[in-house]
Amino acid sequence: MPLSVMREWPWHGAAAALASLLLLVAPAARGYGLIEAFESALAADTRYAAARAERDAALQALPIARAGLRPLISASISDAKVQGGRDIRNPTTGQQVDESLDYFSRARSISLRQTIYDRDVFRAVDRAELQVAYAEAAFEGRTKELANRLGGSYLDLMYALDGLTLARSQVQSFEGQLEVARRRFEGGEGTRTEIAEAGSRLDSAQADLLEALDRVAVARRSLQDITGMDSAAIRPPAGRLVIGALDPPTLDDWLASAEASSPEVQVRRLATQVARIDVERARSGHYPRVELVGSISRTSSDTLSTVNTDSTLRTIGLQISIPIYAGGRVDAGVTQAVANLQRSEAELAAELDTQRIEVRRQYLAVTSGIARIAAREKAVESSELALEGTRAGLRAGIRSNVDVLDAQQRLFIARRDLAEVRYVALLSLMRLQLAAGRPPLNAVTQVDALLRAWQ
């Protein structure tokens, strides 16, 4: 900002504050795009790291469940020193004899247990497979959430930078008009009112510039928290933004895509399948269990009657457990599982409705945003022409300096509104694709390509 403007500020310390903010929001030498920011966020975002760890933990449900289908082998070793004694009375002589019973007892055994039929274990494996798919879908939803947060933060920074550029331009314009008002007054054409009006507009523009600097600083910090990268030079795009026709073009196609691919819908759909498995597992309490059991054991001096005797035993057989009565626990468990299934089905229907509403909202935001961009571009062109005409009228003596200030203000507002609808349309395009179940990387890549073409 020109030093002349800073000297005219009526408050003390404003120049120093503005200089500090300018250093804070000054862009770095090199910048990065949205796709680079997304790749960095995948590694740096703490919430996403927690989601990744949660997914990794959930993936272990399948090997844990499959362990129930594999043999359970265990070994045991026992060494014990037995101390004792026995009194023996001779029935003929009546004499009592003390006999020591100290000895060492040893036992070695290996046992095996293999499930042959257990309906609960079988269904537990099916449930674990669904849990793994559930974890993957939930993690995809966290990736979608990260892309949403990143897109909002990234475009918010770009909008803040655009606003900063506009605020600086406004200050410079009002500086020029203040100088024009002074020259007109010195030449006997203007009035003190025009100078006061121009000074008032300049003071307001300088306050707006400070506010714009604050927004940029906050937006940079927000983006840095997500990506872990320093907020480098992200230049506000210039020129026309061309989003182009949506692919697919119709709302029904986007809705069908969301129903089939939305991670939130997939999560609820898998949760419903898990609930159905839980009903079957609850009913498994009525079914028998069959196991193959076997063991090999070798003992030495196992009991008092086998002191100094070694024995080896080998056993193998089937063990069948048949439930007869469990106090009503099984029936109550089935009733509970059925109720949970009904809840999951209702949650699935609610999630479908939620995603349909979101897709419809973002679809309309994109389609209307394209038309709004065109309208705002025309408004900017008209405001530019109006400003030029007003300046010409001022030179011709039929317009006042206040009229020029008003025209400049309207042009600034028109440019600000154009920047807003551009970024809203871009963010809506990203959110539409994410809501429809498109891979987050694809959605980010498309918006990044539009930003690069825009620049």
Biggest sheet character: 4 strands, antiparallel
Q: What proportion of the residues form beta strands (DSSP E)?
A: 5-15%
| CATH homologous superfamily heading of the largest domain | Outer membrane efflux proteins (OEP)
Q: Shape, please? A: elongated
**CATH class call of the largest domain:** Mainly Alpha
Spatial order of the strands forming the largest sheet: 1-4-5-6
Number of domains: 2
Number of helices in the DSSP assignment:
12
| Average predicted local confidence, pLDDT | 86
The end-to-end distance, rounded to whole angstroms, is: 24 Å
Radius of gyration: 40 Å
Give the strand tally.
Answer: 6
Structural class: alpha+beta
The low-pLDDT segments are 1-30
Helix-strand pattern = HHHHHEEEEHHHHEEHHH
CATH topology of the largest domain: Outer membrane efflux proteins (OEP)
Mind explaining what this structure looks like?
It is a single chain. By secondary structure, the protein is α+β, with helices and mostly antiparallel strands. The chain has 12 helices and 6 strands. Strands 1-4-5-6 form a 4-stranded antiparallel β-sheet. The chain has a two-stranded antiparallel sheet with strand order 2-3. Strand 2 and strand 3 (96-100) form a beta hairpin. The radius of gyration is 40 Å and the shape is elongated.
